[in-house]
User: Fold these one by one.
Assistant:
Number 1:
Amino acid sequence: MRRRGLPYLIVLLASAWATRHFWWPSHYVVTFDTGTYAAPNWMVGKSAFTDWRLPLINDRIFGGVPHLGNPQTGTLYPLRWVSYLFEPTRGLNLLAAVHVFLLGTGVTFFSRRLSVSRLGATVSGVVAVLCGAVVTKSIQIEQIMVIAWLPWVLACALMVIRHPERLRYAGALSIAVSMTILSGHPQMTYEVAMVAAVFVLAQLWRNSQWRRALRSISLALTASLLTSSLQLIAALTATGDSYYSGGRDINALGNGDFVLRARHAMQVFLGSVTSDRSDVFAGSFESISYIGVVATLLALLAMAVSVRRHESRRWSIPLVVMAFVGFVWSLGPRTPVFRLAFDFLPGFDLGRVSARWLVVVSMIAAIFVGVGVDLVRQGLTRRMLALVAATTAAGTIAVVALPVRSGSGSTSWIWLGTALLAIVVTVTTVRRPQIRTHLARGLIALLVLEMLLLDRASIVDDVTSDVPAEQLGSATTEWLSSTDGYTIALTDDGGGGPDYLVPSLRPNAAAMFDIASIDGYDGGVQVTRRWANALERISPAPNPELPLRSSVALPLDPAAMARFGVRYVLLDVTDDPSALVPGWRGPMATDDRFAVYENPDWIAPAWAIVTDAPDAPVCEVDCTYRPVDLRVLSPEHLRVGTNLEQSAVVTVPRQALAGWHVTVDGKSAEVTVVDELFLGVRVSAGEHVIEWRYRPAWLAPSVFASLIGVAVTLLLLWGRRPRWRRSTPSAPR
């Protein structure tokens, strides 16, 4: 038992080293995403759960948008609930560290299911947690939480296929798939689904018990889809209302920062032990995927041998295929393979960053590294040795004769020297079998040393701080957090790191300080079509891909901003307010970097647009506004009190999402959309109490379906054999 647990203990230690900045008491990993996206979403979720309600809406950004419907929030993910016991940055950091360990142990566990030795599986797990792709994804919490479940999905699927009569394996697969769906990032979920689908189909091909295995897998998938139905239905509904629901423009996917540049391919995978910035060396942040020279040679050797061997062909071929396809897709739309997938694979066109397929390549490579270690321990044949030498020679020629970059001459020599040292060790294992085990351990030591040296330029080091994101506020954010109305910021998007972007209210950071904004940034389902269309009312050439500040016409028109509920604007003190917000009052609050100005035309948190008759159209110009009393009982429950002298359209500056219902004096009324964006309802003169509640039709059925899914999964874990298996009647005596 102790020997069985040793690989996981070693992977735990490697994970602890790789994530040391995430859990060390005086350290915090604070990135752009942490301060402006992950932490604000985390706080919206925690606030809802501590109030014993589902966080259906985030009313702090975009004038109120789906929160549960945004998969990247991971609202229903159980491990995220545990993180609510901590402060935002620490909770997110610990989530990242836990998932790096989860991924490493998953790779180790899956490798053992593939009959890789304990030593080989341990090496695979260590490579997985130390490789550049995982280190990089660890600071993108929404992505690492999904990709960590990939090896567990593959391992559980393999166990179901090999033992379809054991229902507990189907239950385990249901849990792994459910956790993948609930944990977050849509593109990462799509990648896990693609790899798993190809792998499972390959295992079922010409399998004598494929029918029983398919039934067990179908049962597991049904249970997981039911369990995740609340998240899935919310996401599908939000996607249908999203600006991106029709897919992305393929020409926009060729952004050099979002694709693997072919000339940087060797830099990306081999890495540099001398470079100070792994993102610069790899060509972009999204392309960081180093695994080192030794691991690359072992992985390529193992791939070539495994696909030829009959006993490993069934599982190795689909993994090799997905590694190759993932590499090609990471190059972006420059290849026909990518364009075909974009045109014909459902959902493929929703992915924004092609280079993120490199994490799939890295995970598969890590698995094959362990296989390569076993080959060295068993002794390489002359053909295998020739393959290693040929791979090294091809890489050398690519750097010397072809337009493939190495970064510098010293890097090329380090690569070549490391490769030759690895070859010398493998040659010695052939000629000196009596010390083969010791030489294999020496090769492993060289591999680990190289990866630790590569880790010296870890991107995590560049984003480690002694101050958590939630403490980066300033006097202006503190002042704004106690005010009504929407705030937008015209501060500099490229003004620096989180210590500038967070207090400058890089749009989503407003939610972390409980400041409401009509602005925001997501790049996903929270950018609704109605919000994108509304931008045209205040900008001649809006760009929904970017925050409002990138589209709004300057100087700011007070009347137009008031119509959108904007009361305050945040400026950098180096900006000229007379050029950006002429006529605005202020500064109302200031600190050493920012200043707040107030809109002189602001009406109220909610208002009534006076009409001549109950059925008159909503006013467009020269409107008469009357402030009304608004009480926010929760983001999903609003109450308005009015005392009007004539009929009006009462307007609440919240996006008119499908699912909002309104009552006037307890009687159901019809929703009127104001300015193609906000909630409105027509009322007659006099006193009225108006109640708005967000209760979409899919909520109750999907909650019920999720509970059924959990029950089915528990039954699978408890069950011993499927109902379709009938006992064979005994022969008559």
Number 2:
Amino acid sequence: MSPAAHLLDTPHHDGSLRYLSQPHPRLGETVDLYVRVPHAASVTSLHVRTTHDAEPKFTAGVVDRHTASDTWWRVPLVVHNPVAHYRFLLQGGELGYQWLNGTGLHERDVPDAADFRITTYDPPPAWSDDAVVYQIFPDRFARSASADARPTPDWAEPVSWDTPVAGRGRRTGRQLYGGDLEGIAEHLDHIETLGATVVYLTPVFPSRSNHRYDATTFDRVDPILGGDEALTKLAAAVHARGMRILGDFTTNHTGAGHEWFRAAQADPAAPERDYYFFDGDRYVAWLDVKSLPKLNYDSAELIRRVFDDPQGVVRKWLTGPDGLDGWRIDVANMTGRYGAQDRYHDVARRMREAATTARPDALLVAEHCHDTSRDALGDGWHGVMNYAGFTRPLWTWLRHREYAPDFLGLPVIVPRLGGRAVMETMREFAAQMPWVTLTHSFNQVGSHDTTRVRTLVGDDAGQVDVAAGMLLTMPSIPMITYGDEIGMLGEFGEDGRRPMPWDAAPGRGGRGGTDPAAPGGEPPATTPGGAPPATTPAGEPPLWDERLHTVYRDLIAMRRASPALHAGGLRWVYADDDVLVYLREHPQQTALVHLARLAHDPVRLPAAALDGIESGCAAYGPGLVVDGDEIVLSAGGPHVGVWTWSPRAE
């Protein structure tokens, strides 16, 4: 298609409830697959191609029903293998031969890599289906009065809450602001009223840094945070609000001060020696960072202590009514892999078994920054952090023209691309995993490891709204890093780990502010030499942007109330440089989403192809513009528009 053509005349299928009779089948069951084929496509026959035991097999489809704009085809699929790959062969029209797979329609033969996938593994916990996650870096979120009485560890440099962070350098990991778990509990109202349903804590185990990814033990909670009792009380308070809480576990490494590593160094005959990769006194460390020795899962005893022991790290902290509700797994993509060793999938499956034994509805989401096609089938982790398939393409669309963000070690600047490239990137990465894995992965605009979104867009202030709009209207679990909802700044990961400015919140007498660009308005002009932080009319950076806070609250509330937005499929409709349009389809509801990074020419869509859309159905943004038999989408600047309606009975 040309960039200016809509996709409503293109056949469509995805793994959602609108297109599958059973999203979580058992081995040997038959699932009915549905394909929406617009009449304009002139398809005369349709077959599904699957691979039973790696051998292609074709099954003919039949016409299930007709609507004003589409013919719906139905074809049965016997789920013969735990992961069933399939795509569709369409005949008819001018070409007479087309394949439909996860990346769209193709006029030529294509490999299996982007086939649709359905799996027979146990589904993720039901509570995660409509989750909204709020990520907290414990040292920087909130400090309780109890923190004043706790001794400062020898590695730390205590600083006041308003001290600037040491973004890079010797002091980076040593600055201790004193945020603690009791402080988080005291601010649960903020998280709950925002609309988040899950609190995700970066590590809470003792360590020799403020980030705590260099644990010295997994057996207790860091006393600086309040210890074991504080975590139990926080979990109880979270659960009392009907929310969930996730921990963060480094399966790939420990700290050099960890009790296991100290025992391994002290005695070559110690059982802990086999937990690591030693060659004499030399040992393997994560990315050669010597403070982070890498774990060796060739050790049966390590596997027992981590996964099988009821008092091991995975099970212990999930056990009981006030245990954690699951884990985010740090550096999961490297876990169990070193040279010729590859125990990654074994580790993922063992952790899934251990976690669900301790807590049957536990959720596991793995950090993964790259291609997940080999690593996210759903038999181990339920999902991944979708940096490659969501964060990076969103950045390429919305980053400021004169600002080049640092993306997790990428040696060149992140490009600024048009909407079509963003759509194609998202489709390609989404096609690499089963739908159930995609929809239980974390989408994030950024995290504690990346540039903050408010810095990413620079003085194009309204584009933060667009980023939040995409985050909260796309499939997958949205994850919001503390402070993004109020416009916190940060050039890169460590710089973004700033203390939450509670004193600047409305009603606290501090320095808040509002962005100079209202939703949908023109952003301020670019300043020469880069993209400075947004400023208040007084010329000072806002510490708490209440307008943006309201945007996040409203978008989250809309998502949680909408079955289409939290459980629907994804059907791309239109992509051009400055505009993206897509549908979220669910049996109960359809949502049309219009995102614009800049002003654009009107996009005209045939109303007949939009399955019952009517004027007056706005869920967010302006009302729908109808011109005769067309829907007209336009924007004068950064813009988010969402319209929801019930599909016609068919």
Number 3:
Amino acid sequence: MSHDSGPVWGSLDPFVEDGAILGRKVANAGFLRALLSVDPFAAYHFFLPDKRSGQALESFVRSVCPGVAAKVRILPRTELPGRLASTSYHCFHLSDCLTHQGFLAAVRNRLARNVFPVTGVTHSLSYARYGQSFAQHVWAGATARDCIVATSRAGAAVVREELAALREVLHAPSPQVDVVPLGVWCGEFAKLEPAPTPGVPADATVFLVPGRISPYSKMDLLPLLRAFQRLRQAGADLGGASLVLAGSPDEGAGLPGTLVNLAANIGLRLVVVRCPDDAAKKALLRRADVVVSLADNPQETFGLTLLEAAAAGKPVIASDYDGYRDLVAHGKTGLLVPTADSGEVEDVSVLAPLLYDTAYHLWLAQDVAVDVGELAGCLRVMLQPGLREAMGRAAREHAASFDWPAVIGRYLALWERLAAEPAPEPGRGESLHPLVMDHGRVFAGYPARRLRDDDELAVTDLGRAVYRGKDFPVVYAGIEGRVDLELMRAVLVLARQPLAWEELRRRAEDHPRLTATVMWMLKGDLL
């Protein structure tokens, strides 16, 4: 049994990653920081694939939650079977529902002491290969305690549709789908200090567009400029307005220059801030009067930038698209601009698996139209300072329900609810997951023959020398979790006289590592 006194939380993921700042990385790190800050569990077990990810996790925990560091256990993933057999876990949660969740459920069914809830969260949902990834969830061993956590209602609808399509073909159950949003650290955004933005007059009304500057993976900014153009043609004075684009140019390296030229023709001041770091992003947000995000690309699912804007007390203009509608109370905390698509993109679906991701995402996004006339009207409304300020105050109040500790509370309630769902007895998952290659079966024809029950095993001269401590076996790095040296010594004793493999298994009480250890001993000339 585990020595941890109290409920134990588990994961296969570190939740922290190096590299460029992306919404997924910010969200995962925010979740972990919040979980450890609330600290509802007796221990946190992370079964990681390599030492580097463990070091990054350890450094993160010590920097943000040092008081919880002693409760965090970083374990090699090869220890998972033993820990599942000895520990009653409260739940396992994964930072992405499309990597290991279905396969983890299969290991749980087969080896764990209890059928604990397994949950995983969504991020982008639009990649062509994700249909294959979702297939891991639809199989005979899926239980009511398994759940895909969508971050928005629109994302949940996508997951349910994909699972339904797979069930029609595979004729098997699938996990539940629930909605828990991403969070934001409201306190960090409420105290932002204003800072000047190079190229923007101090008295300008700043419309800030944060995020990737790319029609391939985030949003097409052409409708926004066309809406400003409509305002200018209608006689509006844009001299006091500035449009600030802050983010990575992504695939469209030449796009910012094109937008600057177009804005100049309209008579709109446009400033591009390339790849701002976290401090610069927050300074830009504090300076902004309005935040604009017109997502039209299915790669976007939630809208973390809108949540950050709300926490900073900024009104938003957002497309009525995907998870954005969960974050904006239209007419109160900001304005939603209608969107429409044709739905006739089967040709894209057919080709998508054969194309680069940027190609079919661009095609799909170009089938989504943001209502330029309505957008122009929203811009006109936001040029009124009194209304902007009222919406900003309402936005900050609205953001409180997305504060990370509140979001963790929703996860705790979800895990409790899932744990109360009916489930099969543990240890009843004898069959492999259908998408897992059965190596023993598939590669049966590779060796000349297989070890048989009546094959006799006997200690070799080298085996005797190893037993007496006069020689030593070779144990390669990476197999320590499969080979048991104490069991090796017991086998050397049992096989002093020739012993049938069937009898050896009986005398060793079918130790879980017996077969791997015996084959290693045969390979190393100990038997």
Number 4:
Amino acid sequence: APTPSGPTVDLRVVGIEAAEQDFPTASAPSYDLFTTEALAKSFNAKTVVLSAYFVRLRHGAADLPRFQSQAKALGGLSVSDLDTAASAIEGSIQPLAVGWWILAGLAALVGIIVMAQALARQATIEADSYATLSALGVSRRQLVVLTMTRTLFIGVAGAIGGMVLAFLLSPLTLVGEAKLAAPSTGFEFDTFALLLGALAAIIAVLALGLWPAIRTARMNNPGESTRVARPSRIVALFTAVDAPVSALIGVRHALERGRGDNAVPVGSAMLGSILAVTALCATVVFGASLTHLTSTPTLYGQLPGLSFGVNGSLSSTWNEQMLTGIERTRAVSDIFAAISGDVSINGKDVDAIAGQSLRGQLVVTMINGRLPSADDEVTLGATTLRQLGTHVGSVVRVAVPQPQGGSHISSFRIVGTAVFPPNGVGGLGTGALFTLDSFLGGRCTPGPKQRACLVQSVIAAGGAFVVRAAPGAEGQAALTRLSRAYPSEVTHPAPPTNLVNFGEAVDFPLIFGLVVILFGTATLMHFLVVSVVRRGREVGLLKTLGFIRRQVAFAVSCQTTTVAVAGIVIGVPVGIAIGREVWRAFANNLGVLPVPVVTVWVMVAVACGTVIVANVLAIGPALVASRSNPASLLKAE
């Protein structure tokens, strides 16, 4: 591009646009400046103006082949299907939208569990005062109304705080291509979404608090007995091995509910710990698998070598010489010729690739089945297969546009599912793979001249030669030499834009992990505070019998460590299993090869971090319990 040497002109910005070519998914982005025709002619009266017409076909993609041939006959330079590009852009934005919904749903699920546990524990704490109120004549209904009134205030306060937080975080929600499609000016208060969400939050909190309120009112009715918890076998085991008394007491506080005024709902704390570790491990597996996917081109269909596109502006001889130079490179193990174009499969427009091996084999990542080997076979992308409502083994009707106009329609059997390169206009997970001869309509008959015919057809169609080298330094050096020899024709692998948006621009696994850590921390803190308050008399009795501060603090530490270890023992394997299955479902939905990744050292770090964080959270309650005055704790006795 020449260096600008003309005058500088001030232009007033009067609008912001978003066209298909502005999005990285559709093609290499080109950001245009839209002015009037008069601006160009004010500098050069001989400016050439090329007109572009936008049309909508009456029958959609079915009319495209006929329209292309008629437009070409009228002198049109080219016809581009903008619907396909728009679908690819929507497909790139869709994972972001789905990601936000999934994140909101998972966060709501974790929040519901935490809130249910907190309300149940709070109801248990208030049981003492409810027993007194019941003795004074307060009815069960009045007790339930009293509890639900408190719960209503909690729900309203949480809903207001949630709306404020959502408003403050609104500038961060539009990222990647979604931000190009809908430029945001900053903070946005979506009245409908926020008010509806706040109402749903209040209703959920009231629903979660109803059963604890009813249960507490029934339990504390005069004359009603208190449930006695069953002794724990683990506590009995610690007793049998002569564990330190402070450790034994801490384990018992973590595993046994207790009775009477000292009763603490330990089951909800255990469940919260297990769910937190499970969700965190599943998130770690999902995030590691996503990172592995974006760093492994073959998993998302990007060919593990280089693609040398045919340069239509150069002569056929140049492109043949480029192919000859590639073939003479000894380290090159696989070469196949490919062309692409739109076809109609069962009436749906699909971006297709046709390939023919010139050396070695076709370099295509398969999910299941096999590559097409006959002229009546086709391999589809997972998303395309799902959109068509077919399966491997089905027969579909395919219309392939012909250069002279019209389409060649024939039946093809689906023989497999493959992962297609993300640089196709159809987007990730979409596409169809044919043999080159079937795509050309049998133009190149079998025989000695078939190979030369196929090469010439690829050059004429503006296709590409895909190259893979032998593994090792020699192969990599050969690819480097070829890319330097033909720099304008080579295409390097690039991760799909929608995966980059999902994993890097937003990093949903990291956000959800932080949410899980926040909720898990809140659950454990609430449990520790409730336990210290409810079992204050027991602590006072222990200190009277000779327990020193260090022993009391150690007992609290053993209690929180037991809860954390229970979460690790159950949550780590369950989280790994859930993370693997969630990743497989996500990858299959995208149309990439599902390869879950479990990093052992990360799981060990999660386990160790859980224990460390739990003990750090226990420092405050442990200090309160150890420094408490036995006289004040036992004065009620």
